[in-house]
Amino acid sequence: MKISPEEVARVARLARLDLSEEKVELFSGQLGDILDYMDKLGEVETAEVEPLYSPVEHVTVLRPDETAKEYSREEILSNAPETDGSHFIVPRIV
Amino acid sequence: MSELHQKTLTELRSLLLAGKATAEQAVSDCLGRIEATEPSVRALLQVRGEDALAEARELDKAGPDPQKPLWGIPLAVKDVLCTRGQRTTCGSRILENFTPVFDATAVARLREAGAVLVGKTNMDEFAMGSSTENSAYFPTRNPWALDRVPGGSSGGSGATVAARQCPAALGTDTGGSIRLPASFCGLVGLKPTYGRVSRFGMVAYGSSLDQIGPMTRCVEDAARVLGVIAGHDPRDSTSVDRPVPDYVAALEQRSDLSGLRIGLPEEYWGEGLAPEVAAACGAAVEKMRALGATTVPVKLSMTQYAIATYYIVAMAEASSNLARFDGVRYGYRNREASELIDMYTRSRTEGFGDEVQRRIIIGTYVLSSGYYDAYYRKAAQVRRLLREDFLKAFESCDLIAGPVCPTTAFKVGDKADPLQMYLMDIFTISANLAGLPGMSLPVGLGAESGMPVGLQLMGPSFSEESMLAAAHCLEQALPPLPAPSL
Question: Where are the alpha helices (DSSP H) in B230-268?
C-alpha cells in the first residue's frame, strides 16, 4: 500500500502537525514501507474473532462521584506557558 | 566505606540495616560514581545531588528502618515517570520545562519504602525507540562498549545500573523497553503482568501495553523492587486488585528446577538469530535442564504477525495519548501564533521529534475513517489470537524461554531505517500484546561481540513469583557477568 505525499500532509494536518515538503516526501516513503509491512495482517482469518483492546478485561471500574480538591489553583497553573493567575491564556479564538 | 556503588541493592541494604554504612555514604558514593562515569555514558537527564544528600541525612537521623524495604537505597527512574518538584521531560523538547506537582504511584511507593531518588534517566522520546538514540537531548552509550547503544527505550535506566551509578532503576516496557536494554546492558529487567503495577503518573504511550518494572543487577534485587511498586491503585482503573505476594520469600521456594516445564517456541529459536545469541541462550537452557527442568516444544504461530499488530496498536494509542500536548496547560508553546489552531500546530511541530511525529501520523492514519476496520480493528482481532496462542502454549509448559533480541547491542547509528529498528522487538512485543509478564536474565557474553546476552522468560499472567524463583535458581548456577570495564 502506497501512501501519497498529499495523504501524509492531510493526515498530518488532522494531527495538528505541519510538515515541511521534504519531510512529507521522506515520511510518505517510510510510511508506505511500514503500512506494506502491516498489510501482512490481511493474511489472518479474523471474521469470527472478537477484538481484544486491553489485556485487562475486567468490568468498568466505578468510584463514588465525590469531588476532591487535591491541588491548588496555583499548582495546576504552575506549568502553563501563559496564565493570568486564575486561568490558562490562549490566543484569541473568535 | 568505599565502593558502595559496586554492591547490589540486596548487599547494600544489609550494610545499611546493620549500620555498616549510612544512607548519606550510599548516596554520596553513587553521586561520585555518576560524576566519574557520566561524561562517557550519559545515562541521566538530571542528577539530584544536594537534594538527594539532604534526604539521605534525614533518613540517617531517624536511623535504619527494617520495615522500609528500600531504606537508604539510591535509585534512578526513567524520565517518563512524574516526580513531584522534579522536571519530567520524557526525553522530549515539548516537556523541557514540565515540573509535575505529583509523584507517579510507583515513584511515591519507592519513596515510602525509603529509597532516595538520585536521578532521572535518559530515554527515547516518549519511549519510542529501541536504542535511546531518539532522545531529544543526547544519545546514551552502552557501558560495555561506548560505541554501542544501550538499547531502548529505557536505555538510560539500563546504562545507569550497568555503569554502577546506582543499584537499581525503574524502566517502562511498551514493546520490550525494559527487557531489551536489560539484555544489551547485562541486567535483570522485569516487565510485570499488565495491571500488576499502577501506571498512574507515567506519561502514557500505548496505554494498553505500557507497564513499569525494575532493572537491577540480580534477580533478588528485582524481586525487592517489584514488591514495593506492585499493587492496586484506585487512581489507575487498569491496575488489578490482587494481593502482592512476598517475591523475595518466593525465591527460596526452589533449590533446583525439578518439575519445571520450559516451553521452547520454534518461532523464537529459528533463523535470523545471531549465532552468539543462539549459543548463549541455548547454553542457558541446557543449564536449566541440568537443574532438573524439562523442555517441551511449543508453537506460537502468530509470532510472525506480532510486529505489525504491535505497531498498529501502539501507534494508534500514541496518536491519541499525545493529543494532550497542545501548548495550553503544560509543555512547549510557540509564542508567535496569533490564533489557536495555529498555536497547537506550531507547538506540536516544534516540540515533537521525528520518530514521534512519524508514529502520530501512522496512528492517526490507522484510526481514520475508512482505515479503522482494516488496521486498528484487525490488529485488535489478531491480538486476541496472539494471546490465545500463549494460553494454549501454557497448557503444556510453566514458562517460555527464548532470546530477548536477535542480536547483541548494535553500534550507534547502525539502524537508521525506522522499520529495521522496529524489527528488533520481534521477541518482546508479544508479551505486551498479551499482557503477560516477561523478564530478561543475563546469561553470558556473546562469543563474537563480547557483549551481554539476555535470556527471556515469559509466563502466564501473575506468574512473577515462579518466574523470579526459576530465574534466581538459574542465576545461581551461571557464572556471574563481570562488571563492564568503565
Answer: 247-250
d(CA B68, CA B49): 23
Test B378 with A54 for CB contact under 8 angstroms: no
Section A25-48 average pLDDT: 92
Question: What pLDDT shows up at residue B250?
Answer: 97
Q: Is B378 one of the annotated active-site residues of the chain?
A: no
Angstrom distance (rounded) from CA A54 to CA A32: 28
Strand pairing category for B294-298 and B438-445: unpaired
* Residue among B400, B396, B397, B382 nearest B436 (CA): B400
Strand partners, B258: none
Give the global pTM: 0.97
- Beta pairing, strands B211-216 & B438-445: unpaired
CB B292 within 8 A of CB B415: no
How far apart (Å, rounded) are the C-alpha atoms in residues B63 and B70? 13
Asked whether B439 and B214 are in contact (CB, 8 A), the reply is no
Count CB pairs under 8 A between chains A and B: 171
Of B360, B436, B362, the C-alpha closest to B393 is: B436
B68, B78, B191, B415: the catalytic one is: B78
Which residues have a Cβ under 8 Å from the Cβ of B96 and sit 6 or more positions away? B89, B332
Q: Tell me the residue type at B252.
A: E
| Interface predicted TM-score (ipTM) of this complex, two decimals | 0.94
**pLDDT tens, position by position, B431-486:** 999 999 999 999 999 999 999 999 999 999 999 999 999 999 999 999 999 999 98
φ and ψ of B139, to 5 deg = -80, 150
